[in-house]
Amino acid sequence: MNIIDTVWQYIYKYFISGIINDTSYNPVDTLVYAIVLGISLFGVLKLLEKLDVDIDTRFMIAVTPYILAGSSLRVLEDLKAFMPPLKYLFVTPIIYFFMFAVTISLLVLAITLERKGKIKDYHAFFGYAGLVWTAINIISLLAVDEITNPRAAAAILFLGFATTGIVYLVSRQSGFALLTDKLNISILFTHLLDASSTFIGMDWLGYYEKHVAPTFFIDMAGNYTDHPSLVMYPLKLLVFIPVLYMLDNKFDTQKEKKLISMMKLAILVLGLSPATRNTLRILMGV
Question: CA-CA distance, 36 to 270, in Å (whole number)?
């Protein structure tokens, strides 16, 4: 066996096989994807700077529909709405590159139309385009399959809002301004919603966790409780509250602030994307 065959077998085992078979992640691909994400953040930041785009609250609101569009598109693939090889375009992590390409293309179109005087505000055009895309995906989901678990999906939303509400009230009463900030508490909400989808999916409906780190902690918690996926709630808080604190308090320069905004957007995507996908999967009984 030559070196090329050895490398190909390695790539197939740790990367391609997981994509083709849609199986759980492994430590190797998890590490590589994390590195790629980190490098990509700087590339995206440079691109947005070139486009003269401020990563502010308005922009994050406008880009949120694209997160929902990507997640709903992923569920369409779960429902086997696409056949090979097209289906592989909508499997993680390839779908992230696809969504990025389409999102950036529409963003450039919106900015171009604004600069030519065709529209007044690129944020509105860009955001509404994402909403239309999301709506088309949702209609397609309902056309392909039917809703089977509305109570479970409602429970996810209730737990997401309830846990976030508790954190917000405790923060306000204790004067912890970090989590009374609208953007920070919104980001935390997406991750608590993700935790809720994991809990409902695993404990109510027999789903399993695909990611390496959550699986490790859930398995560990299984030694002490019959509901090990509940560990996702404290895990999310223990990870993301310190991260948000560092982002808000450890960087000062204007350039660093732009990077902070980019990182917060990435954290928002990493929470809302799986939370939406999981909730839609459970709603549709996939």
Answer: 14
Query: Quick one: pLDDT band at residue 1, thresholds 50, 70, 90?
Result: low
Tell me the pLDDT tens digit for each residue of 69-89. 999 999 999 999 998 888 888
160 occurs within a structural domain: yes
Residues whose CB falls within 8 Å of the CB of residue 118, separated by 6 or more in sequence, listed in order: none
**Residue 75 covered by a domain:** no
Domain membership of residue 168 (yes or no) is yes
CA 6 centroid distance within chain: 34
Encoding tokens for residue 134? 């999301």
Neighbours of 274 (CB within 10 A): 22
Mean pLDDT within 163-172: 98
Give the chain's domain count. 1
Q: Is 30 a member of any domain?
A: no
Residue-range definition of the domain harbouring residue 183: 148-286
The pTM of the full predicted model, rounded to 2 decimals, is: 0.91
Q: What is the pLDDT of residue 67?
A: 97
